[in-house]
Structures are given as structure tokens and as C-alpha cells.
Specification:
alpha+beta, 5-stranded antiparallel β-sheet, two-stranded antiparallel ribbon, 7 strands, SH3 type barrels
Length: about 170
């Protein structure tokens, strides 16, 4: 508002303060959000997953209590089961996508593996350490390894961090 008034070649003392007081008193001005990033009117809520946001006005234009009961029955028998079905389908797709991208490997005892180096020095440093021999798999799904000298590695490695399997 101040910039607009200045663009009209007008000004007065306390112009910014007067503009701020005017906006704070204006009912219509309070309905929108003006920020430094621009004009942001009220917007719709978008859900990332099915059933994340739900609002139903069952009382709009009701003529009787029976009509309200019919609407509730429709929601219970049709809408809510449909939402549940859609949610389960989406969850299955997300699980399948996750399973396609994540390494699911089980290495037998005695297999030779390489382990991804968690502290990579520079681009020319090797990405993998090893070879190691799998001693056993722990109950948590990680592996206890031993090096070429036969010493067990103090850190147990998860299968997803074992980058290469060099089984003989």
C-alpha cells in the first residue's frame, strides 16, 4: 500500500504507520493473507494419502431427521468402505514400490561379501571394504563378519549396507 501511494507521487509523515492501522481495522483486508512472498488467499487442503483429511457436512439442507439418518447410513455402507479399500490399495502399491527399490538379500554363513565403506574419503577411494566372510546372521537381521585374518569385525553389518556379494 505504501509503495502504491509513493508511486502516485504522494507521501506524508507516518505514512507506513497509517497504512498499517488502516489494514488492521479493515474487515475485508483481514480475510486474506499478505506476506512478503505474495498474495495467499485461502486454499483447499490437499491430502498426501487417502483418508488423511476428511470433512463431511451432513446437515446441509436437511428437511428431516430421517434424511440425516439416510445420509449417515450411506456414508457408513458406501463411502467409508470405499475409502478403506482405496487406502489398502495405495498401501499395497507403496509396499511393492519399496520392495522393488530395497535390497533384500540373505547371505548364508561362510559367504564372501564386500561391505560399503561408511566413511568414504574422496572420489578415488574404494567404495567397498573386504572381502569379509559371513559368520552368522543376528536376530535383528544384521550380519557378523570376519576379515581375512579370521578376526570378527566389531560392527555387525545389515544386509542393505553390504553392497556386493562375491559368493564363490
Amino acid at each position: 500500500m505504501v509503495k502504491h501511494i509513493h508511486s502516485l507521487q504522494k507521501t506524508w509523515p507516518n505514512l507506513a504507520k497509517d497504512c498499517l492501522e488502516y489494514v488492521q481495522r479493515c474487515q475485508e483486508c483481514q480475510r486474506v493473507n499478505m506476506a512478503r512472498k505474495g498474495y495467499h488467499p485461502l486454499t483447499a487442503i490437499h491430502a498426501q494419502l487417502p483418508g488423511e483429511h476428511m470433512a463431511v457436512d451432513l446437515t446441509e439442507k436437511l428437511s428431516s431427521q430421517e434424511e440425516l439418518l439416510k445420509r449417515l447410513e450411506y456414508m457408513t455402507k458406501t463411502v467409508f468402505p470405499a475409502i478403506d479399500t482405496k487406502t489398502r490399495k495405495t498401501q499395497r502399491r507403496m509396499i511393492e514400490r519399496f520392495n522393488r527399490t530395497v535390497l533384500h538379500s540373505e547371505f548364508p554363513d561362510g559367504a564372501k561379501v564386500m561391505s560399503l565403506d561408511p566413511i568414504l574419503g574422496d572420489k578415488l577411494s574404494p567404495r567397498y571394504e573386504g572381502p569379509y566372510i559371513v559368520v552368522r546372521r543376528t536376530t535383528g537381521g544384521s550380519y557378523v563378519l570376519k576379515d581375512a585374518t579370521g578376526e570378527e569385525i566389531a560392527i555387525s553389518n545389515a544386509a542393505s549396507s553390504n553392497g556386493r556379494d562375491s559368493r564363490d
